[in-house]
């Protein structure tokens, strides 16, 4: 840490990272809530949507894998600013390619920029969130992810209103892109410049810091935690990309009710992320994860099988509640040892976000063969596997996590 942290600076840093998490959620929900409108405007099928998502996922993997290089070279402060500007540009281009110059390739370019920016941002904001958690000595990563969910609630709500009012995708996405740029610039002022990916006594060269950041990939626990996070990240990403379409078409609710269902999912996830810290402090990570995995499994099954719209919404709520803590608690577990927190959080975040971003496009291709609702049984199986593997999140002996 290059800047001495006073109480006021730590508070300002926390608020800035809260805002960044919110902006990330806002951007993703903006895209997700308008998928039915984009599909209709471009007259494409689920396979084409899946291929768009696959392109975004490929760009996101590039962003995830580049995040350590960007942060080691620039620090997370400047790195987050840069990639937020990239994702905002991509979001605006999605609107241009939908309405102004309707063209699938232009939407794909926008999604590539959007995916790269969000992929890199996801790693860096989690690294900063984990560093703040170390500074305050409490389980607060779920709260940071709650602010991501606040962003998805806001984004899904705006998307539902825009779809209901038949507002074109272009003015919607450009407005949100401008808001994200504003958040990025303001947050930059309050995020301290930090050395990334190395304990305090490690070599100071950026190549040495990068080597330390990548060392977590040689640790078996990284991959076991990845199993825990993969199922829940898949559940969250699948909901963000396909829930609105599932309600709109497969359950016959239309685009507006599809966006409302995504809002219900996001609200449930947000509530449980706000409550996550106290739940973990009382019951422990492992028990909390197992109970929520069971909740998510029940919710997805209800969403698939529900005979009417109220039960679909109940399923969406249980799905959101159950999937709420898998990712943040995986991040918290990765950060148990403060000396190597940044490296381990970066590696664990990469595993989780590969599932979050690349799994749902595969569902789109499969859904054209067996139907979207039947495809969601894949998520049920992965969530169950996440619950069985949750013992990996047990705090490491001799670290700050042993009290949880």
The figure for the number of domains is 1
CATH topological fold name: Growth Hormone, Chain: A
Can you tell me the CATH architecture?
A: Up-down Bundle
* Overall radius of gyration: 20 Å
The helix content is over 70%
Low-pLDDT residue intervals, each spanning 5 or more residues: 198-203
Distance between the termini: 26 Å
In the CATH hierarchy, what is the superfamily?
A: MFS general substrate transporter like domains
Derived structural class: mainly alpha
Counted by DSSP, the helix tally is 16
Mind summarizing the main beta sheet?
Answer: none
In round numbers, the mean pLDDT is 84
SSE arrangement, N to C: HHHHHHHHHHHHHHHH
InterPro entries: MFS, MFS_dom, MFS_trans_sf, MFS_Transporter
Keywords: Membrane, Transmembrane, Transmembrane helix
GO molecular function: transmembrane transporter activity
Protein name: MFS family permease
């Amino acid at each position: 840490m290059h800047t001495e942290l006073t109480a006021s600076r730590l508070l300002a840093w926390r608020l800035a990272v809260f805002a960044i998490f919110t902006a990330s959620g806002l951007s993703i929900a903006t895209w997700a809530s308008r998928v039915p409108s984009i599909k209709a405007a471009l007259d494409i099928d689920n396979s084409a949507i899946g291929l768009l998502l696959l392109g975004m996922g490929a760009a996101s993997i590039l962003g995830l894998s580049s995040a350590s290089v960007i942060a080691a070279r620039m620090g997370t402060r400047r790195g987050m600013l840069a990639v937020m500007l990239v994702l905002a540009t991509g979001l605006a281009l999605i609107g241009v390619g939908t309405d102004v110059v309707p063209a699938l390739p232009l939407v794909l370019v926008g999604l590539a920029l959007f995916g790269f920016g969000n992929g890199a941002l996801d790693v860096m904001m989690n690294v900063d969130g984990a560093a703040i958690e170390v500074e305050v000595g409490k389980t607060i990563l779920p709260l940071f992810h709650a602010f991501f969910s606040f962003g998805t609630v806001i984004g899904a709500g705006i998307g539902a209103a825009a779809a209901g009012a038949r507002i074109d995708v272009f003015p919607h996405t450009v407005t949100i892109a401008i808001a994200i740029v504003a958040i990025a610039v303001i947050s930059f002022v309050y995020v301290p410049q930090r050395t990334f990916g190395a304990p305090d006594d490690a070599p100071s060269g950026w190549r040495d810091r990068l080597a330390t950041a990548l060392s977590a990939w040689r640790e078996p626990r990284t991959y076991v935690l990845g199993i825990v996070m993969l199922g829940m990240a898949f559940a969250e990403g699948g909901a963000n990309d396909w829930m609105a379409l599932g309600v709109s078409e497969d359950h016959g609710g239309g685009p507006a009710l599809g966006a409302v269902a995504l809002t219900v999912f996001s609200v449930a996830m947000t509530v449980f992320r706000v409550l996550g810290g106290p739940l973990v402090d009382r019951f422990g990570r492992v028990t909390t994860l197992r109970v929520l995995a069971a909740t998510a499994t029940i919710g997805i099954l209800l969403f698939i099988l529900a005979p009417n719209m109220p039960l679909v919404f109940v399923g969406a709520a249980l799905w959101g509640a159950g999937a709420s803590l898998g990712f943040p608690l995986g991040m918290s577990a990765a950060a148990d040892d403060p000396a190597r927190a940044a490296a381990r959080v970066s590696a664990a975040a990469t595993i989780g976000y590969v599932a979050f971003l690349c799994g749902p496009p595969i569902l789109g291709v499969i859904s054209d063969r067996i139907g979207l609702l039947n495809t969601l049984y894949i998520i049920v199986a992965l969530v169950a596997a996440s619950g069985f593997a949750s013992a990996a999140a047990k705090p490491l002996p001799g670290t700050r996590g042993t009290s949880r």
